[in-house]
Specification:
The structure is a homotetramer of 173-residue chains. Chain A contains 6 helices and 7 strands; from the N terminus they run βαβαββαβαβαβα. Chain A has 173 residues and is of the alpha/beta class. In chain A, strand 1, helix 1 and strand 2 form a beta-alpha-beta unit. The radius of gyration of chain A is 15 Å and the shape is globular. Chains in contact: A-B, A-C, A-D, B-C, B-D, C-D. At the A-B interface, strand 3, strand 4 and helix 3 of A face strand 3, strand 4 and helix 3 of B.
Chain lengths: 173, 173, 173, 173
C-alpha cells in the first residue's frame, strides 16, 4: 500500500499596516490574499487588522486558507477571516514567528512593526517582496538592503500577482 | 449580498511523549487524531515526533487538518503530517503557545514538557483531558488539581472518542 | 599586566506564590533572600509580588543583588526591591527564562506557575529545592520526580539556609 | 524607622555588531561601556561578542555593572564580562527584551539584528542614540525616523560621552 505523504503547502506571509491602514494598502492587501489563495498557498499573517485583515478576507473570499499568529493569548483578538489562530501570548516578539513561519514574505505599506518583520525575514535569508506604491516601510525599504551585509535585497513588485509569482519562482529554484 | 463569515473551527491540542513514546501511547494518539478529524476540529500540537506525529498521522489519514507549533525556526524539524507549521524559534517556551492556541487539550502519556503544557492550560482555565492507561504524566496527574487553587481538575477519559466528546461538550456549555 | 576576569556570581532563583501568599511563605521567602545575599549570590526571580517581593526584600536588606524577570514590557510592574529589571514582554512564557537563568532554584509555596518553573528547571536538570512547610506546589511536589524519566528529584530542605547550602554544594561537585 | 527603598539604577542598552565588528566600533563600544559605568547606570546588552563584549569590558574595567540577555539557554554563550546573565532560550526574539529592558539605547555600528533592536525601541518610544562614524545601521539610520509615523527620531551623537548624556537628560525631563 502506498504511504500517505503530506506535501506541506507553501506558506506566504503578508505583513503591513495594522490600524492606520490607507485605502490603497487595504485594497492591495486584499489582492495579495486572493493571489495567495489562487496559488494554492497558505496565507500567514499577524492576525490583527488593517493589511492583515484585508489579506485574510481576500484569501477567504477566494477559497484560500488563512493563519493568524497574534501577540495576545486569547482567540478573540484575531480578525474574523483567520481559519486558524495561533495565540502566542508573547507580545510583539511574535513578529519573529511570523517571519520564521513563512517561505516568503510580502510587505504592503506598514510601520516599524512591519520593518521588524522584514528584518527578521532578511536575517533568515527569506525572500521579502515589497509592493510599490503602497506607502510606509514597503515603499521606504523596497529595493534596498537593510544592512551592509547585503544578504538579500528587499525585492519590489508592482502588484499582488507579481509579488506572489516572485516567491513561487524563488522556491522552485 | 450576504456577508462572508468565517466560523473558526475548534482547535484541539494533543500533547504527550516526544521521542520515548510507548506503543500504547502512539496508538492512542493516532486514535485521538482520527477523532479530532471526525469532529471537524483542527488538530494543534507541538509538531515533533511521538504522540505529536501519531496524532497528526491519525488526523491526516482521516481527512483532518493539522497544525504543528515547533520550538525551532526551520520548517524541517516538523513531522511530515503537519499541514501547517509554525516555526516559533523560541525553544520550549513554545509549550505556552500550544496551550494558548487550543480550545481544549488532550494528554496522552508524556514527560515534564507535557506537564508544563497541562500547567499552561490549567493556568488559563482550559479543559484538559488526560487519557487513562497511556502512562506518563497523563496517568500521574489525570483526575487531579495541579495546585491548591483548584481551578479546574485535569479530567480523564478512557479513550480518544470520549476525550474529544468532553471537549466538544465543554465548549457548547 | 594581569588580565581582568569577571567571575560571574552564582544566580539562584526563588519561585513561589505571587499574590495569594501566606504569612509563612512570605517570611520564609525573606529568609531565602537573606541567605542568598549572605552566600554572595545574585537573587533571580519573576520580579512580581508575594514570595518574589519578600525574597527581594530579604536580599536587599542584607546587602544582596536582585534581578526581576517580569512578564510585562514596562518596568513599573516590578516590585520595588529589584535592582535590575528585565522586561520580557512575553507573558508567562517568562517562567522558562527564570528557570534557564538560574544555577539552582528554590521553591517556597506556589501555584501552577511555580510548578511550571519547577518543570522548566527539571527539564534542564537544574537543582530544584522545595522548602518544606511552605504549602503549595513546594509541599506537593517536594521529594518527588515530576515525571517517570526520573531526571532529578525535586529536593527538599527544612529552611532557607539549608536550601541555599544544597545549591552551593551541588555547584561545587 | 526609615523604610528601605531601592532606587533602581538607570539601565542603558548598548546594541551593535556581534562577530563582524570593526576596530572603530569595538573601541567606541568600550568607551560607551566606560561612560555608562561613570554615569552609575547598569549596562544592558545582548551578552554576546563584538560591540556587546567590548562595551561590557569597558564597563567592568571602570567599575560598572553589566547584564547580558542572550538568545541561548545556557550561560556559557555569554561573554566573560557579563556580571549577570539572562538566558532567554527564545532565540533572536530576545532582541525585543533587550529593548524593553532599557531606559535608553545606544547603537554602535550593527547589522539587521541591531536594526530590529532599534525598531523595538522606537516602537516603545524609547530614546535611541546612534553614534556617528561607527558604520552599519547606526550610520545608516541615525538622524532618521524608521517609519512614517515619526514617533521618535533616531538621535545621533558624536561620541560615547555625548550619547550617554542625551539619555540621562531625556530621563530627567
Amino acid at each position: 500500500m502506498a504511504r500517505l505523504t503530506v506535501v506541506r503547502k507553501l506558506q506566504i506571509a503578508v505583513i503591513g499596516y495594522n490600524k492606520e491602514c490607507s485605502e490603497i494598502a487595504s485594497k492591495m492587501a486584499y489582492d495579495v490574499g486572493r493571489e495567495i489563495a489562487a496559488a494554492g498557498a497558505v496565507l500567514v499573517c499577524g492576525g490583527l487588522g488593517g493589511v492583515m485583515e484585508s489579506a485574510c478576507k481576500g484569501a477567504k473570499e477566494n477559497g484560500g486558507t488563512t493563519l493568524g499568529i497574534i501577540p495576545q493569548e486569547e482567540f478573540s483578538y484575531a480578525n474574523e477571516f483567520c481559519d486558524i489562530v495561533v495565540c502566542t501570548g508573547i507580545g510583539f516578539a511574535r513578529d519573529f514567528i511570523v517571519a520564521s513561519s513563512a517561505d516568503g514574505i510580502i510587505a504592503v505599506g506598514g510601520g516599524v512593526g512591519t520593518l521588524i518583520e522584514m528584518g527578521a525575514g532578511y536575517m533568515n535569508k527569506k525572500t521579502v517582496v515589497a509592493i510599490s506604491g503602497t506607502g510606509g516601510v514597503a515603499e521606504k525599504y523596497g529595493g534596498k538592503y537593510l544592512d551592509e551585509r547585503n544578504h538579500v535585497r528587499i525585492l519590489t513588485a508592482p502588484d499582488a500577482s507579481a509579488a506572489v509569482k516572485i516567491i513561487l519562482e524563488k522556491k522552485k529554484s
